[in-house]
Request: fold
Amino acid sequence: MAITGYCHHGMIRRRSRYDQESDREGKADNEMMKEIRDKVEAKRQEIMKESERLRTEATKNHICANCGSPLPSGKRTYCSSKCSVEFSSRFDYSVSSNILREYARKLKDEYNAAHPKKERQPWSTPVARTEHECSFCGSMIKIGEKHEKYVRLPEHDEWFDDDPYGVLRYHTNCLKFVNLLSDAELIEYEGFDEDEAFALLCEVALETGKTFEETVSSIISGNFPSTELLEKISNEFDGELSPCYPNLWDSDHSGYRYVYAVKYESFDRPEARMHVSFSELKDPSDFFAKYYSGIYGDKFNRILSVKWIKVPLPRVEEKETMK
Ligand SMILES: [Zn+2]
Ligand SMILES: [Zn+2]
Reply:
């Protein structure tokens, strides 16, 4: 869709793939790496000293440092260039040394054998000890409620670097619903933008004639909207539910979000788009007719319908991180 550039996207908190691969504690890894580096350095010093000792002795005793055969006069360390090459590879303490590389690998294998991997899974099903906001529906997971918890872990989560050990929590049925949407390819497999989830819930509410709260509590209790409805929404919005925030920042914050599902025609084709405003629009149809004329010029045909719903702003919650 061409108008994406006009949209403000909220903070992305994507649900990431469930991954069975185990993870090793980063801290223990770092300690292991340091220990191995120290041991490799000690080994390097050892090789270097032995190499020096043998070469000094060879020069002193007029024998080849590599093979020990007597040296003809004039030769100081090796009997031949072949012996010179052989000696430097036997006592290689350079950065590219195969001996040291092999040694480091051996130490790593030993460490891994002695410390079997500690499994840590991103998903768990805890009982809430405090209230938490559901990352999908935005309403509260109550104290004592069993729910789905996801922790961003290194090597599991593509957003780990942005939000290390960040925690996402879901109502059990909200996660089921997300998986259902994903399986039906109504959303991208990679996950769901918070804004998109919110817009979808609003559109479901508008299509079913329920309030936002009723729609959310249906989903939480496992009564999901029909597949037909979800497909209709997905088709109409072309799979793009991220809402636009059209130029309404400086309006008074009313404590509500006014969410508009705008269906219109441009280039003689039907289109649909969600919009969020923080104050109520006086004449939504007129507002969006001007808005889309501004974008499409004379390729804008007409507004087909504007439906809207009023939803309280979510309470601001501190970001949760697991250490
Ligand atoms: Zn030799
Ligand atoms: Zn939920």
Summary: Residues 29 and 100 are 20 Å apart (CA to CA). The chain is about 40% helix and 15% strand.
